[in-house]
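Aim 2, interim progress. The first record below pairs a target sequence with its structure tokens.
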Amino acid sequence: MRKYAMKFTAVFLSILLLFSAMHVGVFAADHAYGPYDYAEYWETSERSAVKSASMSKLQKGFYNVLNHVANVLLRMVCAFYPNPSDWKDIDAFDGDGYLPGRQTYATEAAQTNVWRLGYASRTIIPDDFESGKYYIGRDLTRRLAKGINDDNRVRAVALDDNSGEGIVVFAAVDALGVTSADTLNVRKTVLAWAENLNIKVAAVNLSATHSHSAIDAQGVATESIYKLLTGGLKNAVGIEESLMLKNAEKFKSYYVNAVTCAVEDAILSMQPGQLYYGSVDSRDLIEDKRGLIDAAELPDFAVFKFVPDNGAAGTYIADIACHPTAFSADHGLFSGDYIFYLEQRLQEKTGGNFLFLQGASGKISRSGNVNTEKLPAQERMGATSRYMGKTFADAILAAEPSFETLSPVLNVKYTNFTLKPENYILILAVKARLVNNQVYKTGKMPNDIAIVLEEGYVELGGRVGLCLFPVELYPEVFLGTQIINGGDYTAVSWDGGDWDYPAPVDMAPREGIDMVAVHLTNDSLGYCLPDNNFAFLGHILGDGIADETLSLGQHTASQVVTEFQKLMDSIQ
């Protein structure tokens, strides 16, 4: 009896701690912009620097005591919460579904090389979306969707240089995040299909657009209390059941199939053509919400355009570091946010296809909102996302004449490594199957677990390197802390210590390569901020920023950067 009482107490504490840390519609009748471009209604917000920069040592000391107490309690909770019975020992990890990439690293194109690209897109919203069984993936709260404002899709691009080294695929899903389990599922199915057709595939990458109003593809916005209570019981008796979504098995089958079909369709539609690359200034619409990165230091976004030789519509690929949070999840409607309207504008102006990649956004978001008070009622909902999409698209089109031609050379390399989570909130979440990331046991104790992380590098034309990370990367980790406060990151960091790790943007294997971050790729493992600014409850209570509760732990960034450096060193 005492044993069960302790387990019940552990679960009860977990609920209190978890939630203390987190502080029927129809299709829209007309998505056109109409007479409004909203430019005159755009109002820039006023931001101030993060509060922790000016916290006293006494305040930080108090929050650090709370951090210690919370960690001790959470560790106890996780120790008593049974592990899922299907978790395997780390020794059983065989790398199945994890790809090495292409065998050779090419520095110039062979005479027979030519770009080939295929594109496909499918909805990921099931036909019974009005059944009340699907959630909006925003946070650890219950957000059942009432309907659809605009579509949520998977968009896939298959790219090859005709070298015989294999096709490289990028598929982006309108979702808050994707998980390794789903990525591996898609990969294995696509690789088996391709092998039957004698098609060589070197890489299949699945990323998230990170829309905060899209359908929940992970399980983060579901019946959290119910799952915490029932998950431990089912784990204890060995019931292997997906608890991450209401109607989970049906949705997962539909979702994974839609992504897989889009990837296969993209491969089958490949055509020869020319690939172009350029950068676009995005500073008019974005800002660092913390007020720490000046507008001048915010990165341009990378854009690629493929033009088929047969005269068909081209394909745009844009890597934009900006959270898609313009369409509020509080509306209760599915939306792809500004990404939907960016695609719509490009199609309207050029007939072209579109793929969105999420850059190292951290706390980079829109710099303002459309003032809807002056708009007709039917124009108000989604006005900000419509304006942002249109403006981003127009910026791409304006910059297009300056794009440079990329030589048909394609390289791709991967690495994977294990990381022990230090954040017991996340450990509890994976134990309760709130998300279905790949987890392995590393010892006999309940908290002895590890997660496999995969990082990748895709180089196009010997000119651009796409750096693939499975986390939500802070820009100062990728670009280097010199972009903040004149480079004196210790002045704003939590512990005042140094961040002595190199910036991936400077890790190019050769000179002349622009390094571009693509995060939330092939997994979604929370925020990744510099180790010396990891405050856990300190940022929640002091600044209202909950990033550390949605992170693997304090030393995630240093390990992510160190392993990426190893990957880059291996191909130099």
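The second target in this work package is listed in the same format:
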Amino acid sequence: MDKRPFYCYLDSFDELTIIIPIKNYQDNLEYFLVGNEEIIKLKITQKINLGVEIKLIANFDAYIDLSKVYFVENTKKQMAELYTGKIVRTELFDNIYNYKKHDLGFTYTQEGTKFKIWSPVAKYVKLELVDKLGDIKYYDLENKIAGVWRAFIDGDLEGYKYRYLVYVNGKEQSVLDPYAKASDANSEYNFVVDLMKTYQMQYKPDFSGNPLDAIIYETSVRDFTSDENIAFKNKKKYLGFIEENIKTPNGFSAGIDYLVELGITHVQLMPIFDFEGIDELNPDSQYNWGYNPSQYFIPEGSYSTNPNDAYSRINELKMMIDQLHKRNISVVMDVVYNHVYDAVNFSMEKLVPGYPYHVDRNGINTNVSGCSNDLATHRKMLRKLIIESTHFWASEYKVDGFRFDLMGLIDYETMNELMLELHDLNPQIIVYGEGWNMYSSNLSDRMAHMGSKKVMPTIGFFNDKFRETIKGSTFNPKEPGYTTGNTNNLETVKEMILGSAKNRYLFKYSAQSINYVECHDNLTFFDKCLYMTENMESIYRQQLLATSMVILSQGVPFIHSGQEFYRTKSLDENSYISGDEINKVDWSLREKHFDEINFVKELIKIRKNFNCFKLKAASDLEAKTDIVSLNSGSLLVHYNDTCNLLLVFKPTSIEETIIIPEEYQLLLASEELESKDGSEYCLKEIGTYIFRKGDEANV
């Protein structure tokens, strides 16, 4: 039990707060700041009665060294150690302790290893080093510039385990290195590794760097290979993802071979950095999507064949990415820099309590993310962590893009600086995220959906307006969208087809619009439809139309794994811990919906081969497109440039006849069509129909 007579916190470089239980308070006592061989009288400037406590605001005129232990003492000789309080959230603190070098963590050579860790408020830091035989030694670190503690240990430490003991705010705690590159299972220790000895990647995908050339396919390492009916040797692992010649029971391709056949350009992997919520030594006992960040530079151990081996998880992830690159598939990493899983035990919080998070007026962590904490990404050393983390994944693991979870909670300056750093490393990297307008007066620097005007135009945003318009309401499953029967908002549908950029509807450029109708979150399209109809044939047609609109609209198409073969999660709209049976990619559906998959393949080919689907500027959209709506709600989209394509999106089963110019021929249709005289077509079913000017009848 804490038996201190009062509590004291440093709020700035010349002010502190004393909290005194009212039973201990005496009005005539004086208070002094004691430490670093000084005794400084405190000037009480404010007294506030909190009911059960008295709060005193005190000023002092002295330099204070944050690496030294200080006490507040009263004239009764009662004393309490001075803890750091609001000072860590001041602009002056951020500026003084802004460490600009790029060498935090460990720097390994065979001759010796340098260790550096940032904690301006620590009173001492010790390195706990465990050799390969399990023997433990402790080394004191020296406090250097900008709050960085440093030690150099002679000898070849490769394979040694380490962590830190840090004394902050009255207690010593063990702390993992926030810049560590390797870990044992379940994050007990970090490892010193020689990255030059890890798997050396060989391949680079052929991608232009233009986001409009991307076709993104979201999946999970675990879900992709967890189907018990498919013979993956390394189920739910990095290595399973890249196994070749995997077949369904009836001989259809599955796994990585299927992705190659489908024709997508990018795989977006749900979190692959080290996360909590899974016992890495017994991963089948639990399930978690992985949005529980733990160690931002280290691959997740549950996807490794040997999570306790310092090199296995590194090598296996590198091999997975390299083999995807070999097949010309780029890799996007789903990153979570808006919150952490365990706010108390997050390394940065242990090192500098109160620094990593946004707080309200009462000093309580905000909860805009819904995870009981929101990272204060505008603070310089949090920004540094985020930028250096993404840079590391891009340079060491050759990651080709980043999808930011709740990007709306990350400030503009961080995103812009990060984008510049990444493009300096690799101009082909793409960056996008969830830019929702998540209002909070405490997050004044946050990004919002309309913040697309304030960040670099190469940063993309998930277009939830597209989703709601084309699919229907996410939060009211019975409310339809355009493809599920609502034809009342055709002007908005037209704007979505044009990438939400015509007349700058949402975005300045269509490349900022990530178009989608389903992702890992919320109901799948198929499951939403089950709330509205029991007609399976209608659901299939509606979903194929929606997928067509995702692929053929201006902007960047985004496909949820299994969307093309009607993935279901049994009406589970938040399956983050629901287990493999709910979350698995069910490859039997790949067999059942062979024809629809082939249609999606053809759509992808058309998207790739015709530049009219990649119009960036609003001026091009105005000059080169024309959209006409019919009374039935069908839309005719005409690209009147060199592509000379005419698309028909038909959302109802109302029979209608359309007249196509004689010089146009049918290129692709979701149902068989015949013309009466070469130009008149009768459309009966929900679907997508594509015509092309000229004699070519195929792509």
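The first strand starts at residue 7 and ends at 12. This observation will shape the mutagenesis plan for the next reporting period.
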